[in-house]
């Protein structure tokens, strides 16, 4: 692995996803997530797997989640790899009327974005 791969993440980097994430990999997954927002708060984390800043923000956010008691009582958490599923990211921006950013956290209730944050502003505090 080269120096740049160690810093920015190489192709060999394992895709380790935490168990609290529900992946969004299809329009059906997105539809289910938005339907679930009608019975409780959900959050969608849009992540660029090639961006060092996005990786850092994701790690920090995941640490906050792991340190929170009963996160599942606060919100259902969804994860979108926007490089692998860019059309879904575009659909989210268009359907929910939120400008695309990366990384980005969207908090949704009743099918509407009630809070959003990007970059270093992403925090578990957005869920409350």
From TrEMBL:
<dbReference type="InterPro" id="IPR022551">
    <property type="entry name" value="BrxC"/>
</dbReference>
<protein>
    <submittedName>
        <fullName>Bacillithiol system redox-active protein YtxJ</fullName>
    </submittedName>
</protein>
<dbReference type="Pfam" id="PF11009">
    <property type="entry name" value="BrxC"/>
</dbReference>
């Amino acid at each position: 692995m080269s120096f740049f791969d160690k810093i920015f993440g190489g192709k060999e980097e394992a895709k380790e996803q935490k168990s609290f994430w529900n992946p969004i990999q299809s329009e059906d997954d997105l539809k289910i997530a938005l339907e679930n927002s009608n019975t409780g708060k959900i959050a969608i984390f849009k992540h660029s797997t090639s961006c060092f800043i996005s990786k850092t923000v994701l790690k920090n956010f995941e640490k906050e989640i792991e340190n929170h008691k009963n996160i599942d009582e606060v919100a259902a958490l969804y994860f979108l790899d926007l490089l692998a599923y860019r059309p879904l990211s575009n659909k989210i921006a268009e359907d929910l009327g939120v400008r695309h950013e990366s990384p980005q956290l969207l908090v949704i209730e009743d099918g509407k974005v009630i809070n959003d944050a990007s970059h270093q502003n992403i925090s578990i505090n957005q869920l409350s």
